[in-house]
Amino acid sequence: MSPEGKDLVEMTAAAAAAAIREGRISSEELVRACLERIDEVEPIVQAWTFLDPEHALAQARAADEMRKVGRPLGPLHGVPVGIKDIFDTHDMPTEDGTVLHAGRQPHFDSHVVARLREAGAIIMGKTVTTELAVYTPGKTRNPHNPEHTPGGSSSGSAAAVAAHMVPLAIGSQTNGSVIRPAAYCGVWGYKPTHGLISRTGVLHQSYLLDHVGVFARTAEDTALVATCIMGFDANDRDMRPRAAPPLVNAVASGPPLPPNFAFVRTPVWDKIEPDAEAAFAELIELLGPQAREMALPSEFDAALDLHRTIHEADLAVSFAPEYERGRDKLSPRLVEMIERGQRIPASAYIRAVERIPLLNAALGSIFEWADVILTPATAGEAPRGLESTGSPAFCTIWTLLGMPAVTVPILEGSRGLPMGVQLVAPRHDDARLLAVAKWLENRVRDAGNR
Length: 450
Description:
This protein is α/β, with parallel strands linked by helices. It contains 17 helices and 11 strands. α3 packs antiparallel against α4.
């Protein structure tokens, strides 16, 4: 692509929004550059399931006209954003990664998409999801090596941001579907505290486990887009009226004191790959006395089983219509999960749900000293092959507990593929989480420049 276009697609979302507000570039120029980049790499990466260039450009021209006539501009005015194809959009189909929903056209935007439009964003198109946002892969490939998975279920969103097709994208996580693909694709992925972002108009798996998350290439952009889509929605039963965490200010100012990190291996450490184990050992050594290895209480040994019980029982209820009318069109793995969920006793489900607040409370001893938990985002680099999206096991506990998590793209494996460092904070400590994440990125960068 042209040097000018390359400069535009490499801009951060914050810088692009500022340039558009100040009239140094137009939204149309930025969107055209992104479309040029998509033309260049989409045949290999295949991140999009719906993309109408003329519709994207029409939105951009309207945004430019608003600026010219002096209308109020939102914090993402004129900036293109990719939307995972499980978020309803009134002007684009939402097919949820399954032939059972082919041609589905919502009449209304999801709450998140409406918030993005309110912030001035250009809804670029719909990105590929796995089947019903569970495990069976779509067509997307890892931008760093197309023979490797991009992760899932938010496959297209992570890949589109990593490949510089858009500066921002939206995804969701019920197990590891934001953190894992962000780590595999080498971008920032942030899953806020459960209940901070509305899920109205989003494909529903589990009220207890579903989270909306974001993808970006910088901490600043991560905080910016997340802030834009936070806001109380009475239609989401897990939301409460509360002030949004000051993410943007926290990232800009950083933590008030050097942070402490609790290095936690989790019960799935036996799955860690040698590259990742060695990289984390080096990272812990770099952090010195600011990092301590700390063990999770023994209650956490059953956490993955608790998540599975809740997830599969909820899948059986949420996807009952698809199972009943189109079982033969669902993947064998999803059918097995639904059928296992159908057999879970109500008593087992209730007991699993009741463990969530107890496990959150059990982490109090760790957070008496540590600002955040430091742990792998994945077992290692993105696996070779496209028949799987990799294991979410290193994300499962934090999703179960509704804790905020972010993956910081600061590690690389021996095959040259990214590996993410996952940081986790107590519920509703999202601002400190992102501030510490930015601090860690700077610390590693400074050490590398010596």
